[in-house]
Amino acid sequence: MQNILITGGAGFIGSNFVKFILDRDTQYKIINVDALTYAGNLENLKGIAENSNHTFIKADIRDRVKIDEIFSKHNIDTVVNFAAESHVDRSIVEPEIFLTTNILGTQVLLDIAKNYWKVNPDDKYCKEYKPGVKYLQVSTDEVYGALGKTGMFVETMPLLPNSPYSASKAGADMIVRSYHETFGMPVNITRCSNNYGPYQFPEKLIPLMIENCLKGKKLPIYGDGMQVRDWLHVYDHCSAIESVLNKGVVGEVYNIGGNNEKSNIEIVKLIISTLGKSEDLIKYVQDRPGHDRRYAIDNTKITTQLGWAPAYKFEQGMKETIEWYLNNTEWIENIVSGDYVKYYEKMYRYSK
């Protein structure tokens, strides 16, 4: 059994990945670390609190002493780093926390992992590591910048981030790459398109529009709403990460896309139609600074080399996602009200 450290495991994608692995893979014992900032929610981990293969620890990846203690105590030999500040709007208002968490936090993880993975801990230049050890950095297609009306992101493109958020993720990617090139660390980087699915924090487009529709509130759309994204169901993202962990070539980057290019206004109108609401709820607002016009992922590399492909058709995935939010209105209300923070201790026992 491998001991896998999952950082950011109480967030949207991280919590779904924790459950995904526990549901289908018995080879991992999961050490789940999350700082429980505003987007980290222990309600996302309901149902696995007593799972013997899962341990939750409240910790910040920037805390070198705590992370070192976790590696030592739990004999970590695999890392999947989801931990990140990820909301573009917040990065425009407060970029510093994005830079420190996403870049310096990644460096702390890499540095400590490097120290524990060496066969000869006395040789700081040693490039031989325990078999099977991996460090997987979960990144984003936003590091590539924006596309025109045609073309797709491929792994060999230069990184041209346009927001403090995407710049911080690009910086983290470069540090991960450098630790492979300099120290021989067995790393992979995945860059995904926009995720959707259950447990997504309701500041993001899809859950926000669902929530506002249900309450009859206005649906704020940036600019003309024609920004295009490639939408990926979070379960497909989880299966792709598992494929990279099991089959990925050391040092390689893999793009993960859902083959679903949709404009923001298309998404909003689909939600309105599904919920039987009026398009009069749509309210166009001033576009945010540096708003990328179009993203599109070319996932040829992961599909041909690792045999992965998205399983979700967008229409079915959206139907299930909307149904989930309809059936979990209390979860949304706890998030919006902030009540979820008050119940952390009641819902989960923090591991020391």
CATH topology call of the domain at 2-195 and 232-259 and 294-313: Rossmann fold
Task: Give me the number of helical elements.
Answer: 13
- Report the top-level CATH class of the domain at 2-195 and 232-259 and 294-313: Alpha Beta
Helix share of residues? Answer: 40-55%
Biggest β-sheet description: 7 strands, parallel
Percentage of residues in strands: 15-25%
Computed CA radius of gyration, to the nearest angstrom: 20 Å
Tell me the CATH superfamily of the domain at 2-195 and 232-259 and 294-313. Answer: NAD(P)-binding Rossmann-like Domain
Catalytic activity: dTDP-alpha-D-glucose = dTDP-4-dehydro-6-deoxy-alpha-D-glucose + H2O
Cofactor: NAD(+)
Organism: Desulfofarcimen acetoxidans (strain ATCC 49208 / DSM 771 / KCTC 5769 / VKM B-1644 / 5575) (Desulfotomaculum acetoxidans)
Domain NAD(P)-binding: 5-321
Structure description:
Helix 1 (12-24) crosses helix 7, helix 4 packs parallel to helix 5 and helix 6 runs parallel beside helix 8. Strand 1 (2-7), helix 1 (12-24) and strand 2 (28-34) form a beta-alpha-beta unit. The radius of gyration is 20 Å and the shape is globular. It is 42% helix and 17% strand. The protein has a domain at 2-195 and 232-259 and 294-313: 3-Layer(aba) Sandwich (Rossmann fold). The chain is built from 13 helices and 12 strands. With 352 residues, the protein is of the alpha/beta class. Strands 3-2-1-4-5-6-10 form a 7-stranded parallel beta sheet, with helices on both faces. It starts with a strand and ends in a 5-residue tail after the last helix.
